[in-house]
Prior knowledge:
Blueprint: E1 8-11, E2 19-23, E3 35-40, E4 44-49, E5 55-58, E6 77-85, E7 91-99, H1 101-113, H2 121-146, H3 150-169, H4 177-182
Antiparallel strand pairs: 1-2, 2-5, 3-4, 3-6, 6-7
Amino acid sequence: MANLQLNIIVVPTHNSFLLGVLDASVYVTTPVSPTIEINIPGFGDVLLPFVPNELNVFTSTTLGITEINCDQALPDGIYRIKYSIAPAYENYVERSIMRIDRLQEKFDNAFLQLDLLECDRAIKKQASVDLNTINFYIQGAIASANNCSEYEAIRLYNQADSMLDRFLKSNCGCSGNNYQINFY
């Protein structure tokens, strides 16, 4: 007979309004009242019931951030998730994840707003360099969070966010000068 092995997987939803947590545990018997505790950046901890052997999807309403029927995008940042079954002090699993869905949506919008077919060659290359650099910071933030370097994750996230803001405020996202000076 299998031993109890608790495991959860935070599933990418590609939606800033949803947080998906999949139960990937192996149970001897199905638990009666499992719970999940989620530390939400800027909002603190919330303790909720958790349905075993299923994908549990949370919104700002179910997490207690907003009123019913007023769902909003969940904040980006480091989420700490603890899934436990009775007795909670002995049977639990914890995960920390860097949620970047809002930043990813912003990046996607920047990418889609850039008409690569309309810009001249140097501008297209500069825009590509800028977007690749921003994406590099985003991936660095995720990697840092996955390796317990929260300060570095937040620093890289903020750098990517700032660069995206500058990119979106500029006309076509570039001047072409950086590429011509550094890569041509």
